[in-house]
Amino acid sequence: MLSRIDQITNDINSFTANTAADLEAYRLKYLSKKGILSELFDDFKTIPSEQKKETGQRLNLLKQAAQEKYNSFKSLLSENEEKASGQDLSRPSFPNQYGSRHPISIVRNEIIDIFTRIGFIVSEGPEIENDDHVFTRLNFAPEHPARDMQDTFYISRASAEDSSPDDMLLRTHTSSVQVRVMQSKKPPIRTISPGRVFRNEAISARAHCIFHQVEGLYIDENVSFADLKQTLLFFSREMFGQGTEIRLRPSYFPFTEPSAEMDVSCKICGGKGCNVCKYTGWLEVLGCGMVHPNVLEACNIDSKKYTGFAFGMGIERLAMLKYQVNDLRLYFENDIRFLDQFKTAF
Ligand code: DAH
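A: This is the predicted complex of the input protein with 3,4-dihydroxyphenylalanine.
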């Protein structure tokens, strides 16, 4: 038996496989259930016991060598196969193709992040709204031009001439969410409402019929204009950098009194004047004011006890300032060559 083992050991040592078929023939011949090795192990049972020790050891070494030979050819052949196919199948799947966040989402998340740090919560309302939430309870006079068909997309209208609180429309601003929040919650209220809004505008580099706003609302006892100003200063410095200055210009909105528009110092030129800020050193960013008592009362909040401030900003406007992308249409076309450039942003 020992000489048989020697002979098979020699055969195995000199074996080479050029193809997977060669290797499979080898496996069947030596390693399979009906192969030579299992035959030898059967014979082993019949040999005299004094030969068992040495023969057993030799047999085990042979089995090991046979298996190792098989393993090494197996991996060699699969490597060759990969090379032939031009692929490295062991290569990690890198670089992964990551998507990127849309710039509007990036800016919206940044705004949410800043306001939630100072205690604001996020609330949302429907895009398809009624006149009551978008205009009437926000103190818009019945003949206010914003209610005009030329500005507002109506879905259903009771009368072509006069508006009614039940008219259904696409909201023209996120201020409608203010009304919903005030109707459903008691002060103190501290909330921001990001969302899509719709206006009947011809699409150009500077205007679009769909865009995004973030509305802010804070109502409690003794809320003052100073609170509004300080909140907006905090926001502006977090958003545009710590050196940023703000200025408030008097303005008019039906739902706030007094009302203001806020500018931030131009971060491109540091306030010296450049083409981005049209050589004024300032960039207009948002509208704001103290919530009109009529609005509080229309939403069942006691205007003698409570005061509040509100503000509203356009996300596209902030994205334009942040990324210096000055054609609004780019934010809606979803051209992958544009979106790809925001991969490094969070
Ligand atoms: N709703 C206004 C707009 O769409 C923005 C706005 C201005 C919202 C002043 C406010 C505010 O809450 O106080 O232009």
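The mean pLDDT is 92. The beta strands are 121-122, 128-130, 154-156, 168-170, 189-198, 210-220, 246-253, 256-265, 282-291, 307-314.
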